[in-house]
Amino acid sequence: MNPIVVLTFAMALGFAAVHLFVGNLAFLDVVPRSRWLSFAGGVAVGYVFLHIMPELGAHGAAFAASTGFAPPVAEAMVYALALAGLALFYGTERAIVVSRGERRTTEGRDRPAHGMFRLHIGASALLIFIIAYLLNHREDESLPGLALYFGAMVLHFATADYGTRNHHPELYHRQGRWILAAATLAGWAAGLMFALPALVVGSLFAFVGGGIVLVVLKEELPEERRSYFLPFLGGAALYAALAIGELYLVT
């Protein structure tokens, strides 16, 4: 079997393990917010700005060639897809927060409605499916690039799953984590079976970038999170150093 396929399968299993076992990481369940979650958020944002965003510019050329639009228009379309990813996850988060507030007022239960759980897990599973698919279809196919992708996404999943579990603790443990783990392995398998056109892969990269930015920032920015700036900055700076070091070695 192709060694890269074995490696990406091991990485997909690592992603799935985060979904399944993040609830067992007791050191994350502290008040104020764990510094490790802020560090993980910084790494994920660093990945977006130092890998995904530059690649969007490259995919703009593929859009221009495939659609016939002028390069500025094609590039704007790529970034519009990133905006769509951000908007989708913002809308999902707002719906959950509103539902949680309504139930707190009317029923005294600090939980969103069950329909919101399905919406939240569905949107998260979509993002996770795409991220796992891209394990086998990335612009940067080098081993260091793949390792950086894996590290950034593992930390992103820890942050995102912690937030999901906070909204739906019982349902996440019983159902949600298994759905997300299954979405991970399904995305990896789809990456082996289907090689999508460059235009579609570029669209997926853009969508993922917008989604990750929203998920990370909504976990870090609200005042009640009591998050930490220095660990967030440290995670972003560490990832930036690794990414720039990789580019230096490659070039």
TrEMBL record:
Keywords: Membrane, Transmembrane, Transmembrane helix
Segments forming a coiled coil: none
Segments crossing the lipid bilayer: 6-28, 35-53, 73-92, 113-134, 200-217, 229-250
Listed name of the protein: Divalent heavy-metal cations transporter
Biological source species: Pelagerythrobacter aerophilus
The organism's taxonomic lineage, starting at the top: Bacteria, Pseudomonadati, Pseudomonadota, Alphaproteobacteria, Sphingomonadales
